[in-house]
């Protein structure tokens, strides 16, 4: 069930037990009937439905919203929903981690809460910020904070990945930009391969070439675009020059239909 964590984790809820116990805790949370903020653009009113005298039944939507709360999770147990990671961005996060490791690690983790989904066998599947999770793993950080976006633990294994794709939470795209089968998605963060074009996209956001607030789907779209414009040989041999070339292309007419395009 969702219980208070120990003092080392600031009293944040910890996921202990199975999905049914989490649902029980969610009922108590929903019973207040208060508005709950569910993302930056919408507020959902929790609501309870009664069926005769059988007691209170919590709707699936209410459970999903109640599940959107921070828990602690073992970094080594996090399951990826992508095949690649921008290793240059990972290294940047590792540098930040080393700088705060002794005195401000909890602050770093608080500022880097990662979105996740509860899947079959109660495994925690990341649905974003894979580069942060990989940095934590590479720096041997044991525990992190995640926000559970949805409980999909009861979805059949055969339907899990399809349901995840419909929600926009899985991207089985390899380091060459090719779509692969769901079975090719690695089971551990250490198995994620480098896609330097995703690193370029991250730099384009930092340098103002594209909008900073793009989502994961847009990131993959931009990586695919840059793959056709900036030679891989240049990316691997002279990254600063590749970055300069990418800045030209992301502001060109050829990129104008991509999400997050910024005209000069």
Can you walk me through this structure?
- With 264 residues, the protein is an alpha+beta fold.
- The chain folds into three domains: 2-67, no CATH class; 70-194, Conserved hypothetical protein from pyrococcus furiosus pfu- 392566-001, ParB domain (Alpha-Beta Complex), CATH 3.90.1530.10; 196-255, Ubiquitin-associated (UBA) domain (Helicase, Ruva Protein, domain 3).
- The protein contains ten helices and twelve strands.
- β3 (35-37) and β4 (43-45) form a beta hairpin.
- The protein starts with a strand and ends in a 14-residue tail after the last helix.
Question: Summed up, what is this model?
Answer:
Helices cover 39% and strands 17% of the residues.
Q: Tags for this entry?
A:
single chain, 264 residues, Conserved hypothetical protein from pyrococcus furiosus pfu- 392566-001, ParB domain, Helicase, Ruva Protein, domain 3, two-stranded antiparallel sheet, globular
Runs in which pLDDT lies below 50 for 5 or more consecutive residues are 1-60
**Which architecture of the largest domain would the CATH scheme give at its second level?**
Alpha-Beta Complex
- Helix-strand pattern, N to C? EEHEEEEHEEHHEEHEHEHHHH
Backbone shape: globular
Computed Rg: 20 Å
Domain tally: 3
First-to-last CA distance? 52 Å
* CATH homologous superfamily designation of the largest domain: Conserved hypothetical protein from pyrococcus furiosus pfu- 392566-001, ParB domain
Question: Helix count?
Answer: 10
Largest sheet: 4 strands, mixed
Rounded mean pLDDT is 80
Number of strands: 12
Helix content: 25-40%
Strand order, sheet with most strands: 7-11-9-10
Q: How much of the sequence is in beta strands?
A: 15-25%
Structural class: alpha+beta
Quaternary state of the chains: single chain
Could you name the CATH topology of the largest domain?
Answer: Conserved hypothetical protein from pyrococcus furiosus pfu- 392566-001, ParB domain
Q: Write down the CATH class of the largest domain.
A: Alpha Beta
